Amino acid sequence: MTDTSGTRSNRALWLGLFFTVLGPLSNWLYFHGAPAIAVVWITLFVPAVGLVFLLIGIRRAFREPGVYRGKIWGSVAAGSSVLVLAASVGFFFLARRLPQPPADAPQLGQRVPDFTLPDSDGHQVSLSQLLSGSAGGAPPRAVLLVFYRGYW
């Protein structure tokens, strides 16, 4: 892509911007069944690769301004890339500090202790009542609890 003035397009800047934007957008992989730990590392690695391309492009633009274009645009793109990479790293460490569930919390498949709560009409209903089922019918396999605030 050579134009008439003899300058060439600095493709490293475009690749850097592409990879920098692609990094945070790769979170959609999580919703398609990719393992969560892989998505986190991809989200961190891809913007870092983009930053490397941007730095190469900026180096070209400043060392050989007669051949490559993009001093201003490359600087803005590299600054944006640094911000995106810093945000990705920050969110990575923030997510690692999220509180873990307590050790005594019920696990998947474990039976919950019996409890009694009022229903929407104010009548007391226990978990054992719900799981016993009605007379002559099969007991339910599960109970769904819905916690809501307010009165409608």
List the helices and strands and how they pair.
Blueprint: H1 11-25, H2 36-63, H3 71-96, E1 116-118, E2 124-126, H4 127-132
Antiparallel strand pairs: 1-2
Helix pairs in contact: 1-2, 1-3, 2-3
Question: What would you note in describing this structure?
Answer:
The chain has a two-stranded antiparallel sheet with strand order 1-2. Helix content is 49%, strand content 4%. The chain has a domain of 86 residues. Helix 1 runs antiparallel to helix 2. The chain contains four helices and two strands. Strand 1 and strand 2 form a beta hairpin. The model has no long low-confidence stretch (mean pLDDT 78). The relative contact order is 0.12.
Order of helices and strands: HHHEEH
Secondary-structure-based class equals: mainly alpha
Rg over C-alpha atoms, rounded to the nearest angstrom: 28 Å
State the oligomer.
single chain
Helix content: 40-55%
Distance linking N and C termini: 65 Å
Query: How many DSSP E strands?
Result: 2
What is the residue-mean pLDDT, rounded to a whole number? 78
Summarize the structure.
By secondary structure, the chain is mostly helical. The chain has a domain at 11-96. The chain has helices at 11-25, 36-63, 71-96, 127-132, and strands at residues 116-118, 124-126.
Key features of this structure:
single chain, 152 residues, mainly alpha, two-stranded antiparallel sheet
